[in-house]
Fold this sequence. Notes:
Blueprint: E1 8-13, H1 18-32, E2 36-41, H2 66-81, E3 85-88, H3 117-131, E4 135-138, H4 148-164, E5 173-178, H5 181-191, E6 219-222, H6 227-235, H7 246-254, H8 256-260, E7 261-268
Parallel strand pairs: 1-2, 1-4, 2-3, 4-5
Antiparallel strand pairs: 5-7, 6-7
Helix pairs in contact: 1-2, 1-6, 2-6, 3-4
Zinc ion is lined by residues 14-15, 18, 147, 150.
Amino acid sequence: MTITARQRLLLVHAHPDDESIGTGATMAYYAARGTHVTLVTCTLGEEGEIHLPELAGLAAAEADQLGGYRITELAAACREMGVSDHRFLGGAGRYRDSGMMGLPTNDHPRAFWRADLDEAAGRLVEIMREVRPQVMITYDPQGFYGHPDHIQAHRVAMRAAELAGPEGCAPAKIYWTALPRSVLAAGMDAFADASDNPFAGVEAPEDLPFGTPDDQIAARIDATDAGAAKEAAMRAHATQIPDSSWLYVVASNFGAEFMGVEYYTLAAGRRGPGAGRYGWESDLFAGLPSQDVPAPAAAGAR
Ligand SMILES: [Zn+2]
């Protein structure tokens, strides 16, 4: 693949559907503006639930075909987001969905959770070498909410950036997905009296396993024009997100803002100019000096 776009964005996600739920608006937003968007998914999501009764037999404990099926869902989601460069880390099926923390699936020989860090990171470095992304998005050290594959995706992405540094192909900026506490609090208020309150039993935003103080947020990407593409991408993951999901209920109640605005903390690189009380960037490429693709000869020692 010859990549000529001046802006190149790399996303490292754990399972098919994480890209759409967590960063779908950002991906569609940048893809629509000519940025080369590369999605790396680390597993096939073999251990996911199945919300389509007619496909229940694909489950890991049955035919164990869910992973292969989810390749097609992910391809459809990428089409909705306008993203054509999608890869599985090490190739499809190299790493297996580890399942939730503490389950026996964590010990499967191919479980991503057990992957050798440098080996897995090396596979990502190969992609960095080819794509030369200026910006990378992944999860925080807790994997946003604690799933072992999300934690491992974080470790692999950060290690790859470290390994790629001396070659000059590490991303200049690294972002972690985040939800500001103020946004969580607003969501909790809005749902307080709803019968299908996804926050039922939660007293305060601080009690949730995610949520970042607003002053630690670095970027707010207003991709409301990509909100519809994000929702369409999520709907492509029909085995994982039923049509009755509260996510769609929230989307119809809050509209563009809920689907189309995504937030990030900056984990590496220099923050660009921003605005508002906390100086939030509105562009992940803000402050980056040159966005030209280096000639292959200047690509550094290998
Ligand atoms: Zn996931």
